[in-house]
Amino acid sequence: MSLFARHQKLASFLLFILGTQAAIAQTPPPAAPVSDEPELVEFDTSKTRSIAVPALVAPAPVDTAAGNSVALGRQIAEVISSDLRASGVFETQGPNGLRAITLPEVTTPQFDYWKSRRVEQLVQGFVRVGGDGNLTVGCYLYDVGFGNETTRLGFNVPPREWRRAAHKCADAIYARLTGELPFFDSRIAYIAESGPKNKRIKRLAIMDSDGANHRFITNGQSTALTPRFSPNYKSILYLSYVDGNPRIYVYDIDAGRQRLITQSTSPTFAPRWSPDGQTILYSMAVSGNTDVYKIAASGNGTPVKLTSSPGIDVGGSFSPDGRQIVFESDRSGSQQIYLMNADGSNQRRISFGSGRYATPEWSPRADLIAFTRIAGDFRVGTMRPDGSGERLLTDSWQDEAPTWAPNGRVIQFFRTAKGSGKTSIWQVDLTGSNERQLPTPVDGSDPAWGPVLP
Amino acid sequence: MKSHMIKMAAILLVSTAFVTGCGKKKVDALPPAAQGTDYGQNATDPNAGTGQIIPGSQEDFLQQVGQFGDRILFETDRFNVDAEDQAVLQRQAQWLAQYPNTRVIVEGHADERGTRDYNLALGERRANSAKNYLTSIGVDASRIQTVSYGKERPSALGSDEQSWTQNRRAVTVTVR
């Protein structure tokens, strides 16, 4: 059974509330500020909070399909710690270097001990193996300074999905402490690259948001480009040269089959899903001229042509409410970013800075559009949907193709090395801080971040 | 392999003569032999090195149009066919007139200094520009396919102006 088939068995993945503090745990994180003029909210990274994550306690060591529960307790703590550290908002300790805790401590922490270690926030928990073989993972967050519990959650998962329990716990802590929406429990589709620059092997691949559970989907015999996860993670849109021409296919992950999104013999590229997964946006070149089209994802509809300029109209990304599309066009003489309504009406340019602007991607929070700016070097930046507030987040030789974390606070992109053409996947937060490379088994490009898993 | 190298050197001499007098877009040097050629172009021909070239073959095509006579080059983000390009395409058309049963694919390419999707669109435009000129001088459109590789198949491997100049191209490849 594929990883995704397992993910869809969500009946087996239960989130439940431990104990009596349900009211706290059920309180949604504070919503992002809403106003007529969207604000660029910034993490206060100057005040990173120190979080300790000792190994989760396994009160009765049991062997599971994913290893002994004691080892799982440590591994889950490692993933929680790694997620929180990677967010750039926290400094984490543990589980390595921290003492083991006892089961009674999970609910009655030794606050004085943790204070003496200058810990501000404490994550503790346990792993139990039920009669059905599933894991129950308890996850508690304590404010050491105030000496109180702020979040507790429990997850019931098959042993093989222990990492998801860890991501869910890290997500709850991140949301509680930052006021932002969660994003760790999500996946990334990308293109795995190898081989020399002029004969690059490019394979469709998927992985968890932290690079774990990596899986190649295509074998590299034909070039694959620009994947996009469907919002429900059941399929992937991507470009393949499998028949010798660039064409967009929709790949069904469980069935392992793919089909063309349109039977047209013209080349199609730059695929995107609408937020509801019902519509596919794509670009098609007819007699050399590229325009933006949309078609029903069911495969039964007829294509709707949205642009008709003699210039190159390409790419595109729906606004989260599905009403607008941001795309790029060189109708003015160079690549620039344009908005239009989802029916193609009211096309208007929004980028007016120096250089060319490409690969616009609308944030899931709706407040910003990420782009690649080409002015000599390629840099990734953001602007408001009206084109104001431009901010460049990266500064390298060639950073390209931003994709948003599901919470709209982190952006991934790929970086190409001058000369060698080697590629790597990076992420950066909205302030331009905490830039870091994602671990991939080979080179990587064209990342596409999916939503938080259902 | 050694005889192949000798042949390459011979072709270089011919092509040097051919590009003499070309303007800004001339190909200055051969890309390194082991690296930077297009698919199809350096496919091993069983007759390579024996001195026998099958009439109407890809090797014959390359011999007749001259080294780099299989391609036209473009300015950054441009796709127009200028007088220099027309001369190249006219030689291709002459060869195609000799072998009326031969079909070709025109491959459109872009340099690495563009974004991926835009470069796919740009490669389409370049391939179609070459195709449109070939049909305007009498080549039947049904004999010409186009394909864009965007920035996926560079010919020259450097990250410099000279390499990018060589990579912004439309290359005609015969189909057997």
How would you describe this structure to a colleague?
The complex is a heterodimer of chains A (454) and B (176). With 454 residues, chain A is mainly beta. Chain A is 13% helix and 40% strand. Chain A has two domains: 3-178, Rossmann fold (3-Layer(aba) Sandwich), CATH 3.40.50; 186-452, TolB, C-terminal domain (Neuraminidase). Chain A has helices at residues 3-8, 22-26, 69-86, 103-107, 111-116, 162-178; strands at 14-16, 49-52, 63-64, 67-68, 90-93, 121-129, 135-143, 148-157, 186-194, 201-208, 215-216, 224-229, 235-240, 247-252, 257-260, 268-273, 279-286, 289-296, 304-305, 313-318, 324-329, 336-341, 348-349, 356-362, 369-375, 377-383, 391-392, 399-404, 410-416, 423-429, 436-437, 443-452. Chain A has a six-stranded mixed beta sheet with strand order 1-8-7-6-2-5. In chain A, strands 11-10-9-32 form a four-stranded antiparallel beta sheet, with no helix packed on it. Chain A has a four-stranded antiparallel beta sheet with strand order 12-13-14-15, with no helix packed on it. In chain A, helix 3 (69-86) packs parallel to helix 6 (162-178). Chain B is α+β, with helices and mostly antiparallel strands and 176 residues long. Chain B has a single domain (2-26, 54-175), classed as 60s Ribosomal Protein L30, Chain: A (2-Layer Sandwich), CATH 3.30.1330. In chain B, strands 1-4-2-3 form a four-stranded mixed beta sheet. Chain B is globular, with a radius of gyration of 15 Å. The chains are: A mainly beta (454), B alpha+beta (176). Chains A and B meet through loops of A and helix 4 and strand 3 of B.
Secondary-structure map with pairings?
The complex is a heterodimer of chains A (454) and B (176).
Chain A: H1 3-8, E1 14-16, H2 22-26, E2 49-52, E3 63-64, E4 67-68, H3 69-86, E5 90-93, H4 103-107, H5 111-116, E6 121-129, E7 135-143, E8 148-157, H6 162-178, E9 186-194, E10 201-208, E11 215-216, E12 224-229, E13 235-240, E14 247-252, E15 257-260, E16 268-273, E17 279-286, E18 289-296, E19 304-305, E20 313-318, E21 324-329, E22 336-341, E23 348-349, E24 356-362, E25 369-375, E26 377-383, E27 391-392, E28 399-404, E29 410-416, E30 423-429, E31 436-437, E32 443-452
Chain B: H1 2-19, H2 58-65, E1 71-73, H3 83-98, E2 103-109, H4 116-136, E3 144-150, H5 161-167, E4 169-175
Parallel strand pairs in B: 2-3
Antiparallel strand pairs in B: 1-4, 2-4
